[in-house]
């Protein structure tokens, strides 16, 4: 299949889309925020995709998960009401239950670290989403071993402007919000956005005779203020407030969208965050001092048996599981970026230097109630994560065409952990990462590059597994769990070569990247499922390997028509990972790592007022877990939209998943059906079904 995918890539690359056109329409050059310096996508020596607001609007993407299938070599996992965890090039977590984790793929929204909280990634009034593939630890630290997503709100101007938006869709979905910005005189330029959405979810609970046990109600408020403090100083103030009151009733014993839960759970998040960034524009260097604070209180609960008492003759078991987390983050950072290059080695040298401190305090309360024995178990844990880093980067321009960029980051972590089972541990270590890039720019909007990068993520402790040691009388199981008490940091080393270009008449843009990477001390999820125990833990496999490619292009053959395509190819392999059952997974694909992904589509404008888009997201099947062999099926999902615009008014009719395909986004393999005497089988959570709706927008 992988070789066939490369054939598809070759056919696309050799298609007529590489011809030039004489029309006056231009493909868009997008400036990205995620690098140390502002630059366009075509100038960055790494595989990066930027989705702008218009691209998000055509899918009516109100949350990040709705846009992820359009991105090459980017996947996500369900297991909650909104996707919390993202995988890039086959690397990334899929869930979190008892123990704290370090995300492999990070998320920044207006400079605030939401890594591990991707359910907060609401897209209203977001100007663009940037997706950086491959190790980004040299730029962002431990949360970006495999990649980083950067979201930026629409920036205020000095003129008063804004937007009102209303919409409705099937499943009783309603949305509404506004954004307004402009000058506040001496206070500065500000923009406020407020948005609310709700729907009934896509589940029918046959036992409770309800169709809203998986409902979603989400409100998001963002405020950005830019204040000039003299001619050289500026203060950016950012405030976020998010409230999610979502149901969680997603899994069915029959692998359908009809559940039998008597105690459907919830998936809630309340978060507030603020960031203050003080910048100084100097003659020799620019300085930015920033402080960030985030509070995130979440509740994740579910009917643990997925059913009701009496579903089978004599079956009286029932249980409910709830996880309540309080997370507090604080970040301090000082960064110096050269305003004027130094004269070194016969050319100009730009430089960056910075210091970074990050602390995350997380408290967990887990309530597990067994209705059969009327026994309630409560578990407490605290986790204090402290990271201190120093980083720098040099960009040496040998000639106008050749540039060498070298950057490094050294990061020390100290993460004390303790819980109500008496487990205490303090994982600590020093890690380093960075990148070395050689770029060749023979002409404007033409870039060839080769990048060697290294990313890292912290080690940790398996508190749940250690706590279970006290409960078991099996010596073999006790020894097995004790051997996995802690796990070491993971490292990812990647080599990537790529080419980016925009043609002379601005009708065609392309970027292609080919990569290979190696993971050392790979942190993989394992499970113990015996002695009446179902315990998850992380362990270090020997290594994991991958290679693949990404291709993106946009082409306007005529003024009215734009064609767009992205293709991701991926081959992964696990080495040295043996499950608790003794199964050696060496040689198998990594979890949530499809061999191919694609998004292909076209935009056509019949007039200045009327235009339409049709596109397809496709994805190969993939393994749900590194610990079992259950797989998601391949999928191809069709979307379409029709937009009418007249002056300040816009009406969009949109549809996602027009063929109403069921496709898996999370899967487990175990026995949970008493009607089948708990025979193990695959249980899946499905992605979004057919959605149709209309959105009204007024801009001023």
Automatic annotation (TrEMBL):
Segments crossing the lipid bilayer: none
Membrane topology summary: Multi-pass membrane protein
Every TonB-dependent receptor-like beta-barrel domain range: 221-658
Keywords for the protein's UniProt record, in alphabetical order: Cell outer membrane, Ion transport, Iron, Iron transport, Membrane, Receptor, Signal, TonB box, Transmembrane, Transmembrane beta strand, Transport
UniProt cross-references to PROSITE patterns, sorted A to Z: TONB_DEPENDENT_REC_2, TONB_DEPENDENT_REC_3
Motif (TonB C-terminal box): 683-700
GO biological process, one term: iron ion transport
GO cellular component, one term: cell outer membrane
The keyword S-adenosyl-L-methionine is assigned to this record: no
Span of the signal peptide: 1-19
Pfam families: Plug, TonB_dep_Rec_b-barrel
Chain ranges of the TonB-dependent receptor plug domain: 41-147
InterPro entries xrefs: Beta-barrel_TonB (IPR000531), Beta-barrel_TonB_sf (IPR036942), Plug_dom (IPR012910), TonB-dep_rcpt-like (IPR039426), TonB_rcpt_CS (IPR010917)
Claim: Flavoprotein is one of the keywords in the record: no
Subcellular location: Cell outer membrane
Protein family according to the UniProt entry: Belongs to the TonB-dependent receptor family.
Protein name: TonB-dependent receptor
Organism this protein belongs to: Pseudidiomarina terrestris
């Amino acid at each position: 299949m992988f070789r066939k995918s490369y054939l598809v890539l070759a056919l696309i690359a050799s298609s007529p889309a590489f011809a030039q056109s004489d029309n006056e329409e231009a493909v868009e050059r997008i400036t990205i925020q995620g690098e140390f310096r502002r630059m366009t996508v075509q100038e960055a020596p790494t595989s990066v995709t930027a989705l702008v607001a218009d691209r998000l609007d055509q899918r009516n993407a109100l949350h990040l998960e709705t846009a992820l299938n359009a991105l090459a070599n980017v996947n996500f996992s369900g297991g909650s009401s909104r996707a919390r965890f993202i995988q890039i090039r086959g690397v990334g977590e899929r869930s979190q239950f008892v123990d704290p984790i370090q995300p492999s793929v990070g998320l920044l929204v207006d400079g605030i670290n939401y890594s591990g909280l991707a359910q907060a990634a609401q897209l209203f009034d977001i100007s663009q989403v940037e997706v950086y593939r491959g190790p980004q630890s040299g730029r962002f630290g431990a949360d970006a071993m495999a990649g980083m997503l950067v979201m930026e709100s629409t920036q205020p101007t000095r003129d008063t402007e804004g937007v009102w938006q209303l919409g409705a869709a099937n499943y009783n979905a309603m949305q509404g919000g506004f954004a307004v910005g402009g000058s506040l005189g001496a206070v500065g330029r500000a923009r406020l956005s407020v948005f609310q959405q709700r729907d009934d979810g896509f589940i029918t609970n046959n036992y409770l005779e309800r169709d809203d046990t998986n409902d979603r109600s989400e409100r998001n408020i963002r405020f950005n203020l830019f204040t000039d403090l003299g001619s050289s100083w500026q203060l950016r103030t950012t405030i976020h407030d998010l409230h999610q009151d979502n149901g969680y009733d997603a899994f069915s014993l029959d692998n359908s969208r009809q559940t039998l839960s008597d105690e459907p759970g919830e998936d809630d998040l309340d978060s507030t965050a603020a960031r203050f960034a003080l910048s100084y524009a100097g003659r020799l260097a620019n300085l930015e001092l920033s402080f960030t604070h985030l509070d995130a209180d979440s509740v994740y609960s579910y009917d643990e048996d997925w059913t009701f008492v009496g579903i089978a003759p004599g079956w009286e078991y029932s249980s409910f599981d709830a996880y309540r987390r309080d997370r507090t983050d604080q970040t301090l950072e000082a960064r110096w970026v050269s305003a004027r290059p130094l004269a070194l080695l016969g050319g100009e040298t730009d430089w960056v230097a910075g210091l970074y401190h990050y602390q995350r305090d997380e408290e967990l309360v887990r309530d597990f109630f067994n209705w059969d024995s009327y026994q309630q178990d409560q578990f407490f844990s605290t986790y204090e994560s402290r990271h201190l880093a120093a980083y720098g980067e040099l960009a040496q321009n040998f000639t106008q065409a050749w540039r060498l960029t070298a950057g490094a980051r050294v990061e020390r972590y100290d993460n004390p952990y303790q819980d109500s089972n008496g487990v205490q541990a303090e994982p600590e270590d020093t890690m380093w990462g960075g990148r070395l890039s050689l770029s060749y720019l023979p002409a404007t909007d033409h870039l060839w590059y080769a990048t060697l990068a290294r990313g890292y993520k912290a080690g940790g402790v398996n508190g749940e597994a250690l706590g279970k040691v006290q409960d078991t009388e099996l010596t073999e199981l006790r020894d097995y769990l004790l051997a996995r008490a802690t796990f070491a940091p993971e490292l990812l080393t990647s080599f990537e070569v790529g080419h980016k270009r925009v043609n002379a008449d601005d009708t065609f843009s392309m970027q292609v990247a080919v990569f290979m990477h190696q993971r050392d001390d790979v942190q993989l999820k394992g499970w113990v499922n015996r002695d009446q125990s179902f315990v998850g833990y992380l362990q270090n496999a020997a290594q994991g390997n991958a290679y693949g490619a990404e291709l993106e292009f946009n082409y306007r053959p005529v003024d009215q028509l734009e064609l767009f395509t992205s293709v991701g190819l991926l081959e992964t392999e696990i080495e040295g990972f043996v499950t608790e059952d003794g199964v050696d997974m060496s040689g198998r694909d990594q979890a949530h790592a499809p061999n191919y992904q694609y998004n292909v589509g076209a935009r056509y404008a019949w007039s200045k007022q009327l235009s339409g888009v049709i596109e397809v997201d496709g994805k190969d099947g993939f393994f749900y877990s590194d610990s079992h062999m259950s797989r998601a099926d391949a999928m191809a999902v069709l979307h379409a939209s029709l937009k009418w615009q007249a002056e300040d008014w816009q009406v969009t009719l949109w549809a996602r998943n027009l063929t109403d395909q069921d496709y898996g986004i999370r899967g487990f393999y175990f026995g949970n059906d008493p009607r089948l005497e708990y025979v193990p089988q695959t249980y899946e959570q499905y992605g979004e079904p057919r959605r149709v709706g209309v959105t009204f927008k007024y801009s001023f």
